Amino acid sequence: MIEVRNLTKRYRGGTAVDDLSFTVEPGRVTGFLGPNGAGKSTTIRLVLGLDRPSGGFARVNGRPYASLDRPLTAVGALMDAGDLHPTRSVREHLRWLARSNGIGERRIGEVLEATGMAGVARKRAGALSLGMKQRLGVAAALLGDPGVLILDEPVNGLDPEGVVWIRHLVRGLAAEGRTVLVSSHLMSEMALTADHLVVIGRGRLLADTSTEEFIAAH
Ligand code: ADP
Ligand code: ADP
């Protein structure tokens, strides 16, 4: 479970996240929906402890992210594909993450299979298409077999096949009882993927409701 309570992030130029409160429940896909610049990535960075809030707090499984014992096993997160090492292979990326988190080689094979990347395991990350980089990010997020998954704009750069793949993957993970938060600026995509929607605009909560009810009301 993820709890966001009165979360606020001010920058010198303005307020990115403005007194935001919501809960992400396990066992369903929660879509985090809002236009570009709405504050989705900032909120996710605050949940992951990558940034400090100006006010309020976020907790994962009842604790601040920074105090989780085995963070990669508790929470898998896909941010952007920016922090890949271009000359290292797909497998090397996963091995590096696995080693520093006490995860075995067998699990690397499993996530390569689950993300359709077994065939490109030896390819350099710099030579991957944007879609494949996204898949590698998802593979990294799944590596610790986490109970909580946070995917920031996972379908960006994916081809139609990849978009459908992500949709089935996140729905399967939620069906297993995991907590799944997926951000997007696309209502059309969230209508097909999310059971529940947390909608924000200009850093503020606009709706926190089932996808069905949101569509019926708009
Ligand atoms: P989204 O992910 O919904 O597109 P962001 O969280 O990236 O939105 O951005 C929310 C707002 O915060 C935007 O207006 C953005 O320009 C601003 N912002 C994000 N990061 C910073 C930063 N480091 N310094 C100043 N402003 C920022
Ligand atoms: P199935 O039971 O049909 O394999 P699941 O609902 O278990 O489907 O999962 C859907 C997809 O996600 C499958 O491709 C599965 O391999 C993959 N998957 C599920 N859980 C994990 C996980 N923890 N790590 C990696 N991949 C996973």
Strand order of the largest sheet: 5-6-7-3-8-9
Total helices: the number is 8
Give the N-terminus to C-terminus distance in angstroms: 28 Å
Give the names of the bound compounds. Answer: adenosine-5'-diphosphate
Order of helices and strands: EEEHEHEHHHEHEHEEH
Oligomer: single chain
The radius of gyration is 17 Å
| Class derived from helix and strand content | alpha/beta
The amount of helix comes to 25-40%
The total of beta strands comes to: 9
Mean pLDDT: 94
The parts where pLDDT drops under 50 for at least 5 residues are none
Task: Give the DSSP E fraction (strand runs of 2 or more residues).
Answer: 25-35%
Shape annotation: globular
**Biggest beta sheet summary:** 6 strands, mixed
Summarize the structure in words:
The chain is built from 8 helices and 9 strands. It has helices at 40-47, 71-74, 90-99, 105-114, 130-142, 160-175, 187-193, 211-217; strands spanning 2-11, 14-24, 28-33, 55-60, 75-78, 148-152, 179-184, 196-201, 204-210. A 6-stranded mixed sheet has the order 5-6-7-3-8-9, with helices on both faces. Strands 2-1-4 form a 3-stranded antiparallel sheet, with helices on one face. Helix 3 packs across helix 4 (105-114). The longest helix has 16 residues, at 160-175. The protein is globular, with a radius of gyration of 17 Å.
Question: Nutshell version of this structure?
Answer:
The protein is an alpha/beta fold. Helix content is 34%, strand content 28%. The mean pLDDT is 94.
List keywords for this structure.
218 residues, alpha/beta, six-stranded mixed beta sheet, three-stranded antiparallel beta sheet, 8 helices, 9 strands, globular, binds adenosine-5'-diphosphate
